[in-house]
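Q: Okay, next protein. This is tRNA-cytidine(32) 2-sulfurtransferase from Pseudomonas salomonii. I've checked the sequence twice, so it should be correct. Can you predict the 3D structure?
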Amino acid sequence: MSLIAVRSVRQGAIGNVWGLLAKASCQLIHSSQVQRLREQARSHIGTRPVLAVKCPAFRHTPLADPSAMGTLTVNQNKLQKRLRRLAGEAVADFNMIEDGDKVMVCLSGGKDSYTMLDVLLHLQKVAPIRFEIVAVNMDQKQPGFPEHVLPAYLKALGVAYHIVEKDTYSVVKELIPEGKTTCSLCSRLRRGTLYTFADEIGATKMALGHHRDDIVETFFLNMFFNGSLKAMPPKLRADDGRNVVIRPLAYCNEKDIQAYSDFKQFPIIPCNLCGSQENLQRQVVKDMLVDWERKTPGRTESIFRSLQNVQPSQLADRNLFDFTSLKIDESAASRFVNVVNL
């Protein structure tokens, strides 16, 4: 059974229960509301018991400041609920995780991947299916990379993990001239290594931390610089056919993720290889979208929704729509109206 099978209220009693439990687990509600939710759930599944789901206690990590990690404020609680809800919706909408999956969570040490791991650990607790999580970090042998940070963090969480060591840094520095953008080659080398490792450990899904803003930025990058309409799909089967990539944060925006990372105080590891490069095409597009969002709030979300509402007949790709066969439909009712002179 997959998550998509238990989310939609149109798909029977289990879907209703999943929605009710998600509401109970991710919102601050009064005891009377909890009782009402339980009664509503029982009405959908008869005499079967309803699981009482409770939000897990906030975890302290040895790499965070304990004085700043007390009870969540109202705004922090709302933020946490929103990220969990949106990630859960994305997982369900695209059937990202199924019963028995082994999900390899790719952890770079950045805010996005930390947030993704945090959210998936919560979903693992409340989801009506069982799936395994294993965190994987790739040590690319960049100078100054703090090798101790991620192992210490993951051990404190009790999360199974692997550190994959491969010196792609030297390869990138050798092949890319000084001052040129290294991101493209670096990401290809990293992705290839992670695909291979996922196959080795028997991972059925590979989770990446790309969010809504990444997807929209990639859409414009391909449009402006490659002449193609494509972005980052929330779910993708790799070209080798042996790996399925999922992006659980596809519905989450970067601003929320940054705020969540700040109050969680994740031990962020900066990318020293490309983080300081200026004039990156992605940064230009990011700045453009930030400016648009400032002038017209909600524009980025509208653009993202357009990626879910594609009409090939209104574009110009002959591979997606048969324009050559378009002819008048002789059986269609005429719109001609007789005008009678009175």
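A: Here is a summary of the prediction. The longest strand covers residues 132-139. The chain has a mean pLDDT of 80.
Q: Noted. On to the next one.
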